[in-house]
Amino acid sequence: MENIDYAHVFQEIADLLEIQGANPFRVRAYRNGARTIETLSKSLESVLDDEDARLEDLPGIGKDLAAKIRELFQTGQLQFLVELRQEVPASLIQIMHIPGLGPKRARQLWDGLEITTIEELESAARDGSLESLPGFGKTLEAKILKGIEELKARAGRFKLSDADIYVQPLLAYLREADGLDHLEVAGSYRRRAETVGDIDILATAGEDSSLMEHFVAYRDVDQVLAKGPTKSSIRLRAGLQVDLRLVPRESYGAALVYFTGSKAHNIVIRGIGRERGLKINEYGVFRGDQLVSGTTEGEVFASIDLPWIPPELREARGEVEAARDGRLPELIERRMIRGDLQMHSTYSDGKNSVEEMVDACRERGYQYMAITDHSPALAMAGVKPDDFRRQYRAIDKLQAKHDDIRILKSAEVDILDEGKLALDDDLLEEMDVVVISVHSKFNLTRDQMTRRITQAMKHPSVNILAHPTGRLINRREPYPVDVEELVKVASEYGVLLELNAQPDRLDLRDYHLQMAREAGVKIVISTDAHRTAELDYMTYGIEQARRGWLEIEHVANTQTLDKFLKLLRK
Ligand code: DGT
Ligand code: CA
Ligand code: CA
Ligand code: ZN
Q1: pLDDT score for 30
Q2: Predicted structure pTM score
Q3: Are strands 279-281 and 284-287 parallel, antiparallel or unpaired?
Q4: Which residue ranges have their beta carbon within 6 Å of ligand 1?
Q5: Structural domains present in the chain
């Protein structure tokens, strides 16, 4: 089992306990454990194997969770969860995560109307019987139906970061096969799309290769869906489908272009081929029956006089035209990043101290960083003004010890009603950089929300608008907001827009980044790390930025400290 599988078990326990109405502290213990495990930099099973390491030494893992991890490892299941599932139908978990519901209402639906599945919930919402429950009215009913619709639309898609967790070990395993030549993942995974439907792997190998046998014998296979000499499909235990295609060496480049997609990009490429009397498909580039090229991707693009196009751009958003005119962007790379401008510490809901965050940023070679703990706001671990001042004095002390990194004093300040900020002006003025964001009252109209946010952006102290649309991938739709207007105000008032690199946020989206680029608005790629390991989410930010066509000059935190500070000045 991978770490994430252990984490999912604990999340499921927490969900089921919450529906049961268990003690909130107990629920939180499982959630904290799950989060620790998800962001652990080593495999849990390696800790189990290591005689000197103890599970109990991991933060958030007590005796009880450690025992459960060992049981899962040794027996592949957990008796406690088996029993819990007999008490609470697991399908209520899906119901509980529909916006507007939650554990208490899921319980109410179950007790009051014996609803346990999405289908039952949908029909009860349609025939009005939901309204018989206390607290359930027309508005909630409509919200539930919308939630169900969205749930259906994204069914079965994996967040890219989750896919990585399963794909990376699979690739390492496949590379052990005999007679293997090339092996690469194509499809949306290679384009680094924010979610992936399935995984498409391409390979070339010698005649007597064991690749296909090896593939279907993978330890994590739930079901072999198809097995043939050139194509096999498996479903992993996590539910992710993986297709493996073995292609002839002379077709490898053409197959890579075809299966990397996107479909829309392929259509444009094929169209250009057709204009030149060429047929381009997954087997190669053909003039009549004659194979002209297809061994490498570069050759395939060259056959229609194009340079190689980075996979992240292949979405039919102007990349083919740009390639033809010699104006493909020189996409940003991870090594260009010099600082991280959003992270939390133990002052608010982070798991590491300021000092630990500073050391972790220094290890990553950064020249600057900002500690951005939450302002006091509803239902969140916010920091009081006096504690911010205490933190800033602590930062001064730390700063005196380090001349290799600048620690910027900051906060993630909540945008309240009407665009007011959750901290006073005099405190804002003490900060080196002010980050603002929305964490509450999502149910405004598009106009109201846009006005609320732009009002806050116009405040003279504000520098960065964080996670501008508030979406959580696969969990929460963005709040309604006019991103074009945010970009316009950002440009007028010298506010930077954040690309939040948390893999379930990736906010702004790729096409919004392209929009900001066009408008000359600079982007800050920040991890919003809540523990040191999450600073490595920067990679997901970079990939998303590449999908948004961003180059070094479009990203503020590629600049040296001096230049970055100048960009902050309004
Ligand atoms: P996904 O799996 O939904 O996240 O997205 P993709 O892009 O990986 O799509 P998938 O797995 O259905 O197919 C992989 C690639 O194969 C796709 O990006 C383009 C290519 N492809 C699949 N079907 C067609 C098709 O009907 N026409 C063209 N031109 N290309 C196709
Ligand atoms: Ca795919
Ligand atoms: Ca596929
Ligand atoms: Zn936030």
Answers
A1: 94
A2: 0.81
A3: antiparallel
A4: 187-188, 193, 196-198, 200, 258-259, 261-263, 266-267
A5: 3-153 (1.10.150.110), 158-246 (3.30.460.10), 251-324 (3.30.210.10), 334-568 (3.20.20.140)
